[in-house]
Amino acid sequence: MTLTIAAFWPPPPHETTAARYREIADAGIDLVITGNYLNDRVILRHALACAEEAGLGVLVASDPRVDVVMRELDVDPAPLIGRVVEDYRPFRSFRGLSLMDEPHAGQFPRVAAGVAAVRAAGALAYANLFPSHATDGPYDAYVGEFTRLVRPDVLSFDRYPFLADGFDEGYLADLATVREHARRAGLPAWMYVQTLAYDGHREPTAAELAWQVNTALAYGYTGIQYFTYWTPDPARGEGFRSALIDGAGVPTERYGMVRDLNTRWLRPVAAELSGWTSVERTGDVLVGRYGERRLFVCNARHDEPAEVTLDGIGAAFDPATGAYEPCGTTFTLAPGAARLVR
């Protein structure tokens, strides 16, 4: 599997340094999605230079010229988008442009024009979708119409399941809907992982971080995007609490959790995954099928262990050694955990 591990909301301008971007890379992240006041050509080019030194890619999501031209409905976006791409193309770290976050259906034709312009300029064209509870009408129709009209380079959405008063029960249904439309269209599917508490949402545990990643792998997602990396400025509202890096620039406990999750599990296991074909749920277990021989077995619960019994299993993948070790047909998965079996 060609896996992308991205971080949204990088260090702010005064913390945009080579050392800070190496800190991002050290967490097992390979793509930065800009924001956090990196909103002019000068600071964005500086961020691209820092990312290049750290071996990271950058998806530019905060160039104000793109935001303006995407809302000027009477203007052809292609000339300006072409110039924006040319501003960033000299950097090896530049991957592409995010054109709009969470467009509503009436904006799809405009996003489609932007996607065509970015693609013509030779860069990745990206737009992230609403979750179902923020759309009017059936979610399947919303995602399907976006996919048909816009044809982005990846199909991405966000939904943050860990609520202050419980769990968002619609989360897995959205995960399935977006993945199915991506499969039909032959597009990579990307999702966002909740890393922090904010209005109406609580701070996730290590098991809950792993659960979000592992359920995405069970569904065949190839893009994991962390929301957020740096803690948003309190002045932005929404009651954001500390993310992977707090507002003072200090790594939180969840930075270490994500680093270990990415480097000790996600990267090694993703290298073993290819040819995703289906997912099924049996009780508290999700089983993603990769090719004819590999099953990605995931605990569908983030709060309780799950007992698993499978037939005809010969070996389980050990990410520490990169080898498959003989295993039995019955085992226990910790909350949020998964196992790759062959």
From TrEMBL:
Gene3D superfamilies for this protein: Glycosidases (3.20.20.80)
Domain of life: Bacteria
SUPFAM superfamilies in UniProt: (Trans)glycosidases (SSF51445)
Protein name: Beta-galactosidase
